[in-house]
Amino acid sequence: MKLHILGCYAATPRTFTNPTAQVLEIKNHLFLIDCGEGTQVQLRKHKIKFSRIQHIFISHLHGDHFFGLPGLISTFRLLGRKTDLHIYGPKGIKEAVTLLLKLGDSWTNYLLIFHELTSKESDLVFEDEKVTVNTIPLDHRVYTNGFLFREKPAERKLNIEEVKKHQIDTCYYQNIKSGKDIVLDTGVIVPNHKLTLDPPRPKSYAFCSDTAYKPSIVPQINEVDVLYHESTFLESEQLMAPKTKHATAKEAANIAKAANVGLLILGHYSTRYASIELFKEEAMEVFERVELADDGKSFDFS
Ligand SMILES: [Zn+2]
């Protein structure tokens, strides 16, 4: 699992900072999460093969989280994309995007499939044989969801040495990987745990932006490997956080601590601050395992 931060600053794009967008690489998927203005430029700059993106998850319809989407959709058309593109986001996203396509008479030659979200409860929005994605309902000025990405447990790994020692035919390998014992021609049963090794532990990633401090999300994100939580403000502006329905670095750390996550990544910094180091300092007063997101930064969790 890898995470590429394309943009992680609040509000307006600036010379050296970009609004929210990130790419999660998980089990052969490239999931784009939020698509602020300039996302396609950032994808090119950081050499991410964006033709491989088939699923885009949009948290909410504030401009700094989705104004890059119509441009990206248009570029895909110009590049001759043929594969379907799935977009998950709040109700209204289909209307917003299709209005622009209609006015410009520039319909895509690939299938655009919208999955509009309205529920205030967590929904399973994507599932295949290796990954699930659930919404995490958040508390912001407009309807907003975070997203929880979970790998499914993988099959057990063959212990090739043991399998060969017992001269087991390859046609039984799939049965062994799915957990079955093997009966040899001699009638001896070889238990599965002798023929296999534990698969890697499934990983999980929770994206939570934008939101006011919302402790009720803790049970859903309990013990995730990585939590990205917005931290728009420092303690000096803590009174602004509830008014604007954003969180402080310390509040993000409180959530991380209560959920006992493996790592907290902070982002969505207000552009009023000259340096982002203080965000880490304030969060670490509450929770130790903190990293700062920054534009162009990648995290490898494999
Ligand atoms: Zn917002």
From TrEMBL:
It catalyses: Endonucleolytic cleavage of RNA, removing extra 3' nucleotides from tRNA precursor, generating 3' termini of tRNAs. A 3'-hydroxy group is left at the tRNA terminus and a 5'-phosphoryl group is left at the trailer molecule. Its EC number is 3.1.26.11. One of its GO terms (molecular function) is 3'-tRNA processing endoribonuclease activity. The keyword Zinc applies. Its cofactor is Zn(2+). Zn(2+) 2 binds at residues 64-65, 210, 268. InterPro entries: RibonucZ/Hydroxyglut_hydro (IPR036866), RNase_Z/BN (IPR013471). The active site is at 64 (proton acceptor). Keywords: Endonuclease, Hydrolase, Metal-binding, Nuclease, tRNA processing, Zinc. Pfam families: Anti-Pycsar_Apyc1 (PF23023). Binds 2 Zn(2+) ions. Zn(2+) 1 binds at residues 60, 62, 140, 210. The keyword Zinc-finger does not apply. Homodimer. HAMAP family: RNase_Z_BN. Belongs to the RNase Z family. Zinc phosphodiesterase, which displays some tRNA 3'-processing endonuclease activity. Probably involved in tRNA maturation, by removing a 3'-trailer from precursor tRNA. This is Ribonuclease Z. It comes from Sediminicola arcticus. The gene is rnz.
